[in-house]
Design brief:
By secondary structure, the protein is an alpha+beta fold. It contains 25 helices and 10 strands.
């Protein structure tokens, strides 16, 4: 088959794809079968893609099922065959199904959750891709917390969408009990009636994660209402959902803030965001390998998740990856590398690896050059790190420029030829002149200033000349600094050594990267694990007080200029 072509293929030979539709309504399928029979076949082609072992359905499984039921496995169904990746196929199947009628809301929810994962948690982008409003997306994603019995009842049209949306706000074990009672009713309550009943028992005080001291005497606590209302629930529930939700959010935000010094990213995960985060592990079916797992800890998408999902509210999950697409690729690379390594003959000679090659993520396997390039262990360029690095560069440049009059003059001429005098600070030059001569130069009279300079000795003029470039160093654009550092042949080892101030700019996971890179982890030995498990300031103190460790001469990659 061509890259994309329309043809016919035996329906019985098609392989199942990753269809987000799991419930096929018997009545609707019977109608589709009757339509296909009347038309003597399927008119609109289905979409398939080549896979190992044949062709898999991407979109159109209902038509394939119906035609197979009517005409049997040998029926030649029209297809469009397209060479696309598994991820592209998933996207197309998800969007195609959500845009068709009669897909159940829970199936739409599962599809939306996957699309949200592809969009790295950006709900506005996911809604745009699905062609939905943001409110529709939020409501569908909330359904991801429905219990199995609630999902079944909604799929089978035994309850309305509104009932399921209300139940989704409760822990799943409570949903299971509530759905049994709901379906046992002689007449199904309307959504409004059901909501009114739920509001009386809307929030269990036993599950609250905030300080409940103020709740003991609150009239919204149903435990205090039993004398007034027979329907009040013993054990205490909050009937003021706005207050309950606000207090809960305050606690979640506080926990998020406390974790932000430890991780590059901390996210409060809500209903439907199941596919936006995955546990980072090295081994197993979803493992990325030892080396890649270490590299991932410095990635901007690595961090901690705080659950806002009913039944798990407030739970903290550490060592999480928030780029699930990248994670899937890394797992695939590791499994492929291990598969290739396992297929090699046991007697194969060991060949030397080229310079710069790196072991694969995964035990005993070799890694391709492409994978090697993908693994970068470094600290993220957050603004605080960038500002610190630029400060270190400017300070080192000043010292080198002052120490080498010849290069100082060359740099001055080079700057004036390319940048003009825009970065020269008259205030700093005047201040320097006053410091050296105890004479205050005029503010605006160029002639008087020249006379004063002419009357001082050569040493002052020479220092003033050097000071022009030094003053420029403070204000010149940072993109020019690496060029200047290269010309001056600046060795940062002479100007900087590892210190607590720098480490304090980083998250704990980034500090771990530095500790590994500079040899602090190895030097600390068995004490490292204990130090790492403590608070950030205690961790830094332990790393900065290693007996016998030489802190000079060790420059982390994040501080080096591009020409190194």
């Amino acid at each position: 088959m061509e890259h994309q072509t329309i043809t016919n293929i035996r329906v019985g030979s098609l392989l199942a794809g990753n269809n987000p539709r799991t419930y096929f309504d018997p009545v609707e399928m019977a109608e589709l079968e009757a339509s296909i029979l009347a038309a003597k076949g399927v008119i609109q082609p289905i979409l398939i893609r080549p896979v190992e072992g044949g062709y898999a359905i991407v979109a159109g499984e209902r038509r394939a099922r119906a035609s197979r039921k009517v005409f049997g496995d040998d029926y030649e169904i029209p297809v469009i065959a397209k060479a696309i990746s598994a991820e592209e196929a998933d996207d197309m199947a998800l969007i195609e199904n959500t845009q068709r009628a009669n897909m159940s809301p829970t199936e739409e929810a599962a599809a939306a959750a996957k699309i949200l994962g592809r969009c790295e948690g950006n709900r506005d982008e996911a809604a745009k891709r699905l062609g939905w409003s943001r409110s529709t997306l939020d409501k569908r994603l909330a359904l991801m917390n429905c219990s199995p019995s609630v999902i079944a009842a909604l799929n089978e049209r035994k309850i309305q969408l509104g009932h399921a949306e209300l139940l989704a706000a409760a822990p799943k074990d409570r949903q299971e009990k509530a759905i049994v009672n709901l379906l046992a009713q002689t007449t199904l309550p309307s959504v409004a009636e059901f909501k009114a009943g739920l509001e009386k028992i809307s929030r269990s005080m036993a599950l609250a994660i905030f300080d409940k001291a103020d709740c003991t005497s609150c009239h919204h606590n149903s435990g205090n209402q039993q004398a007034l209302f027979a329907e009040a629930v013993s054990g205490g529930h909050c009937t003021n959902s706005d207050c309950f939700n606000k207090k809960t959010e305050d606690v979640l935000e506080a926990r998020k803030k406390s974790l932000e010094e430890n991780y590059p990213r901390v996210v409060i995960v809500r209903q439907g965001e199941n596919n936006t985060v995955i546990k980072l592990i090295a081994e197993g079916a979803t493992g990325v390998g030892d080396e890649q797992a270490a590299a991932c800890r410095s990635c901007k998408s690595f961090g901690a998740a705080i659950s806002a999902i009913p039944g798990k509210v407030g739970n903290v999950y550490e060592s999480q990856c928030f780029d699930t697409s990248c994670h899937t690729k890394k797992v695939g690379e590791r499994l492929l590398a291990e598969k290739k390594a396992a297929a090699k003959p046991a007697t194969a000679p060991i060949t030397a690896k080229p310079a710069g090659s790196t072991p694969v993520a995964g035990k005993g396997a070799e890694k391709s050059t492409a994978t090697s390039k993908a693994i970068v262990t470094s600290v993220q360029d957050t603004q605080r790190v960038v500002d610190y690095r630029i400060g270190v560069w400017r300070k080192a440049l000043k010292k080198e420029l002052f120490a080498d009059p010849h290069k100082n003059l060359c740099m001055l001429i080079g700057i004036m030829m390319t940048r003009g005098g825009t970065n020269v600070s008259s205030t700093k030059l005047a201040s320097g002149f006053e410091t050296m001569t105890s004479q205050k130069p005029p503010v605006s009279n160029v002639g008087e200033a020249a006379v004063m300079v002419a009357e001082v000795d050569d040493q002052v003029r020479s220092q003033m000349l050097s000071g022009i470039v030094i003053s420029i160093t403070d204000s010149i654009e940072k993109l020019h600094l690496p060029e200047m550092l290269k010309f001056m042949q600046v060795d940062l080892v002479k100007h900087w050594k590892l210190n607590a101030e720098f480490l304090d700019l980083l998250t704990k996971s980034e500090i771990e990267v530095i500790a590994e890179e500079l040899g602090l982890k190895a030097a600390l030995g068995e004490k490292y694990t204990k130090a790492k498990s403590g608070k950030k300031d205690e961790f830094i103190k332990a790393l900065m007080e290693i007996e016998g460790f030489v802190y000079e001469g060790k420059i982390p990659k994040v501080l080096k200029h591009a020409v190194d």
